[in-house]
């Protein structure tokens, strides 16, 4: 259907509906993919244990320590000096204070103990360490 103005010329309009549809589809795709990208930020090689049990992941604050010294708290990269501030922020928002430390087997024990100490000082109820089950 062509629209004409009073002078007889064609009125050209840009149809915005396809542009909005494509934008919303891209937004939904990015919203679905983002948690998967954030979840795997650093590579941690967990030590093996034969007595490890599978725990629930609900309301658990994960602290990852990589062999190169990188640290993340629930997928957010933090420096070791800012760990206390980050844990304080996370504990304020959650009602369960369970901390799970995923430390690479090459990380010194002193760093893991420092994370435990900081979490306990801030009121963590349960503290655990992640291990890989032996085959």
SSE blueprint:
Layout: H1 17-39, E1 48-49, E2 60-65, E3 71-73, E4 76-78, H2 83-93, E5 98-103, H3 109-121, E6 126-129, E7 132-133
Parallel strand pairs: 1-7, 2-5, 5-6
Antiparallel strand pairs: 2-3, 3-4
Summarize this entry quickly:
The chain has helices at residues 17-39, 83-93, 109-121; strands spanning 48-49, 60-65, 71-73, 76-78, 98-103, 126-129, 132-133. It is of the alpha/beta class and 135 residues long. A five-stranded mixed sheet has the order 4-3-2-5-6, with helices on one face.
Structural summary, described in words:
The protein has a domain at 48-133: 2-Layer Sandwich (Nucleotidyltransferase, domain 5), CATH 3.30.420.270. Helices cover 35% and strands 19% of the residues. The chain has helices at 17-39, 83-93, 109-121; strands spanning 48-49, 60-65, 71-73, 76-78, 98-103, 126-129, 132-133. The strands form two sheets. A five-stranded mixed beta sheet has the order 4-3-2-5-6, with helices on one face. It has a two-stranded parallel ribbon with strand order 1-7. It starts with 16 loop residues before the first helix and ends with a strand. The model has no long low-confidence stretch (mean pLDDT 80).
**Spatial separation of the terminal alpha carbons:** 69 Å
CATH C-level of the domain at 48-133:
Alpha Beta
SSE string, helix = H, strand = E?
HEEEEHEHEE
Biggest sheet layout: 5 strands, mixed
What is the beta-strand fraction? 15-25%
Number of strands: 7
Gyration radius (Cα, Å) is 25 Å
Helix content: 25-40%
Task: Provide the residue-averaged pLDDT.
Answer: 80
What is the number of helices?
3
Low-confidence runs of at least 5 consecutive residues: none
């Amino acid at each position: 259907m062509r629209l004409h103005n009073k002078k007889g010329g064609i009125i050209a309009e840009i149809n915005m509906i396809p542009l909005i549809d494509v934008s919303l589809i891209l937004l939904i795709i990015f919203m679905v993919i983002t948690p998967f990208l954030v979840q795997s930020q650093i590579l941690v090689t967990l030590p093996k244990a034969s007595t490890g049990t599978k725990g629930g992941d609900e309301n658990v604050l994960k602290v990852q320590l990589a062999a190169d010294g990188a640290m993340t708290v629930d997928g957010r990269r933090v420096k070791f000096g800012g760990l206390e501030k980050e844990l304080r922020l996370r504990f304020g928002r959650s009602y369960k204070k369970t901390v799970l430390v995923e430390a690479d087997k090459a990380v010194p024990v002193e760093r893991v103990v420092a994370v435990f100490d900081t979490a306990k000082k801030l009121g963590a109820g349960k503290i655990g360490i992640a291990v890989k089950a032996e085959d």
